[in-house]
Specification:
alpha+beta, 4-stranded antiparallel sheet, two-stranded antiparallel sheet, 4 helices, globular, disordered N terminus
Length: 149
């Protein structure tokens, strides 16, 4: 089965406004959004997908997870699924399958967005998060997926 992915316009929030909003965000300790996950947070929020928590990942620090992740509201699962599929299918079309860093959704009390493979060096996973964020910031709306033969 082949999927043609189209987008429709006008639902994207103003990127400059969203960027300012994210720049002003902080956690309970007063820490800002991590720089290597920030672009993805901005892209998702600009598409109207509410983010709750995020982390760029930790390497050998004895705490945290060794990959970037974002927790989102379950109400946004359908929108997120379309965005993740849109990004992943484009990545597979443009790169060697062994070099693709696909993203996946883990259902929990919240919805967690994270890289599918975690056996890749943290720096590459973080670079993928930045790339994903920058690509979705260029969308005009949540992708619509249409099947065709």
């Amino acid at each position: 089965m082949i999927f043609k992915i189209l987008t429709r316009g006008k639902a994207m929030r103003n990127i400059k406004e969203v960027r300012k909003e994210v720049e002003e965000m902080s956690d309970k300790l007063g820490e800002p959004v991590d720089p290597k996950i920030k672009e993805l947070v901005i892209g998702l929020r600009a598409l109207g997908i509410e983010t709750i928590h995020s982390c760029q990942g930790h390497s050998g620090e004895g705490h945290g997870l060794p990959y970037p992740w974002i927790d989102l509201q379950p109400k946004d699962a359908n929108k997120l699924l379309k965005v993740v599929y849109w990004y992943n299918i484009r990545a597979y079309q443009k790169r060697n399958i062994n070099k693709v860093i696909a993203w996946t959704i883990l259902p929990r009390a919240t919805i967690r967005l994270m890289p599918e493979r975690k056996d890749i060096p943290l720096e590459k996973l973080q670079k993928s998060a930045v790339d994903f964020g920058k690509k979705i910031q260029k969308l005009k709306d949540i992708p619509k997926l249409y099947k065709y033969l």
